[in-house]
Amino acid sequence: MGANFMFLHGGGQGGWVWDRLINALRLQSGEDGGALRALDVPGCGTKRGRDTSALDFDGIVAELLADIEATGLRDIVLVGHSQAGTVMPKLAAARPGLFRRLVYVSCSSPLPGVTVPEMIGKGVQGQHADQVGWPVDPATSTRDERYRPMFCNDMDEGETVALLARLDGDVWPTSSYLARDWSYDHLATVPTSYVILLQDQALPAAWQERFAERFHADRVIRIDAGHQGMMTRPHALAEVLIAEARD
Fold first, then answer.
1. Per-residue model confidence (pLDDT) at position 31
2. If you average pLDDT over residues 178-198, what whole number do you get?
3. pLDDT one-digit tens code per residue, 109-124
4. For residues 191 and 166, is the Cβ–Cβ distance under 8 A?
5. Residue 132 located in a structural domain
6. Total tally of structural domains belonging to the chain
7. Would you tell me how many other CB atoms lie within 10 Å of the CB of residue 39?
8. Contacts by 130-133 with C-beta closer than 8 Å and gap 24+?
């Protein structure tokens, strides 16, 4: 039996973003595949519409841990995307024996004391050395003008329209954008892979290189894809995940 995979989405999205990748993994793994489960942060995916205003960041972590443990699965390869990078280190710290490997797919890792919005900043990419920035000026652009290059630069028009139509329904708790208490030293002993998406215009590749170092990634893999690589290059990413789960 293969590894058990669990998937954690990024900001403004839900577990649905992993559908194509999960199908690709089923095809490539066949009968030897393990369990494949997508998680939802409170307020997202199957948990849309919940009032999360009173939920602090530790509460987000606790709920996700409860969801994971309710499956009864162990030896889990935890795969996260984008903002999931803020949660995964805390999950690993809380249950160090639960995960076989952490795999970060273009995940962000804010410096201790810095919130996610502060890490992104309010300017364009390259304007401030300590901020990721935006592909277009957020002060003068519409939501779609920002999201098209950030999420859809390697999608055709039909895929772009479909994704943009889904991006407003999933909302991470406010506490996830106020949190500053990040720590990464404990990850030095955690088996960790980082998948850099080379065409990513939300978190450019140079920033992903920094983030991989903060996560103490012992393996770094590069795929020619945009930020939504699990949707645009699912089979390529599936191959990577199967290989990363073998150790």
1. 61
2. 97
3. 999 999 999 999 999 9
4. no
5. no
6. 1
7. 26
8. 132/108, 132/203, 132/204, 132/207
pLDDT of 1 strictly over 60: no
Per the listing, tokens 């772009």 go with 160
Hey, which residues does 221 pair with through a beta bridge? 195
CATH code at 76?
Answer: 3.40.50.1820
Structure-block tokens of residue 71? 């499956």
CB 68 within 8 A of CB 6: yes
Confirm whether 17 is domain-assigned.
yes
Mean pLDDT, the chain, rounded, equals 96
Stated pTM of the model: 0.97
Instruction: Read off the pLDDT of residues 22-44 as tens digits, 9 standing for 90 and up.
Output: 999 999 987 667 899 999 999 99
Let me know how many helices (H) and strands (E) the chain has, helices first: 9, 6
Is beta strand 4-8 parallel, antiparallel or unpaired with respect to 219-223? unpaired
Q: DSSP labels for 68-104?
A: HHHTT--SEEEEEEGGGGGTHHHHHHH-TTSEEEEEE
Looking at the domain assignment, is residue 126 inside a domain? no
Q: Report residue 96: phi and psi, to 5°.
A: -60, -25
Per-residue pLDDT band at 80 (split at 50, 70, 90): very high
The answer to whether residue 161 sits within a structural domain is no
Across 126-156, b (16+ Cβ under 10 Å) vs e yields eeeeebbbbbbebeebeeeebbbbbbbbbbe
Give one DSSP letter per residue of 187-221, joined into a string. GGGS-EEEEEETT-SSS-HHHHHHHHHHTT-SEEE
